[in-house]
Amino acid sequence: MSLKGHFLNPSNAVYEDIALQTLENHKGDFLNLLKQANYPLKMELSSETAQHAADIEIAHSTTVVAVLYRDGVMVAGDRRATAGTSVIYDRAEKVLQIDRHSLLAISGSPAIAYEIARVLEHSFQYFRRSQLQELSLEGKLRMLSRLIRDNLSMALQGIGGVIPIFALYDLNADEDHNGGKIFFYDALGAHFENVDFATTGSGSVWIRGVLRYLSRFGDTPLPRMDQQQAAITILRLLDIASEYDAATSGYNAKVNIFPNVKVVTRSGVDTISDDDLATWYAQAQPEQT
């Protein structure tokens, strides 16, 4: 028996048939029930829309990285935004301050990512002002998860996916311990805590292994680096990513554009100045022989 057309006004007999098929065929799997009922699970574009779909170019962000260092978490992102094979902007901000002790690093669609960041910022502010206290760590993580999950339909269409890194400083941590925390999200909103580092975006595949190597076998492990050492490491990594990934930019010497680098510590969020980045970038270059 086909169940198509009976979902709106089912009779008792139909309910009995559905129950029997539930027990016998799909074993409680709701997705299988929909498939057996010939329920449309795939969104189809109209022929006119599909004809011009290839002409639509959506801006995307690329490589962001977060590293746990001695005082907290350092988060950085390159500045390039691309649409297809075109560079449409070279001053994109991919590391966004959400509140005094949290940062959101974005990769994917900037239009969606910026909206998620705005909603998250206002939600944190509303809770703080209405409840006269900060939202808990778990509350912040779950709120971001919900926003990402609500964007799933756009991500499945391939035009609005956002894979962020959420970095914060936990003020409840002992003063003798580093309260910096790094969380990685997937497209469904699940979050995973990364101990020493996290990176996402099209250029991340080229630097994830390097980060792992530095974290485990480097002369100075990432959590023990000071701010200057961490910044030099990140600048080098983004240079590596830009060498192999066309959608990632490192330091643009022609117009003096540096990656966006921020830190979050017990004292709050701070932005590394271009002057400091210029000095450290010069130190990051190998000596010419």
SSE order: HHHEEEEEEHHHEEEEHHEEH
Task: Give a short account of the largest sheet.
Answer: 5 strands, antiparallel
Given the structure, what is the number of helices? Answer: 9
- The share of residues in helices is 25-40%
Strand content: 15-25%
Helix and strand content put the structural class at alpha+beta
Count of strand segments: 12
Give the overall shape: globular
Determine the mean pLDDT: 83
CATH superfamily of the largest domain: Aminohydrolase, N-terminal nucleophile (Ntn) domain
Q: For the record, what CATH class of the largest domain applies?
A: Alpha Beta
Low-pLDDT segments? 1-8, 50-59
What does this structure look like?
The chain has 289 residues and is of the alpha+beta class. Helices cover 37% and strands 20% of the residues. It has 9 helices and 12 strands. It has a 5-stranded antiparallel beta sheet, with helices on one face. A 5-stranded antiparallel beta sheet has the order 5-6-7-8-9. The protein has a two-stranded antiparallel sheet with strand order 3-4. A hairpin with a 2-residue loop joins β3 (81-83) and β4 (86-89). The longest helix has 22 residues, at 110-131.
